[in-house]
Please model this.
Amino acid sequence: MKFLVDTNVVSEPTKLRPAARVVEWLDRQDPAGLFLPSPVLAEIWDGFYNLPATHPRRPKLEQFARELPVHYRLIDFDARAAHSWGELVNGDGHDLGAMDLLIAAIAHARGFTVTTNDAAPFHRAGLKVFNPFDE
Model:
């Protein structure tokens, strides 16, 4: 199975008290089946730039953002995803937020399962969803 990993899943291991279920699930996965959509990487960088320059976690977050494409297969929003985006925004995906809609379009275009803790809007859009927080 191919999983498109959402921000709340990929960032869970960086928390002070990460959900053990998520960390264990990530550890059990074949890296070849985990894909990081480029909008998730953008969200991580957004989090980095929203921290004050003096914030003690800023260097760790920068390192995390730089290393993500090394640990996950990065998948970009491409022409196939653009086609799916148009379909979703005019159909069952219309209530997704902007970044989630980009993630949903990538998953829809490639038949991937979205791995997220925010499953409901992706379900409503007709996507396959897995929530490792509930595993």
Observations:
- The chain has one domain: 3-130.
- The radius of gyration is 15 Å.
- The CA atoms of residues 88 and 94 lie 6 Å apart.
- The chain has a mean pLDDT of 94.
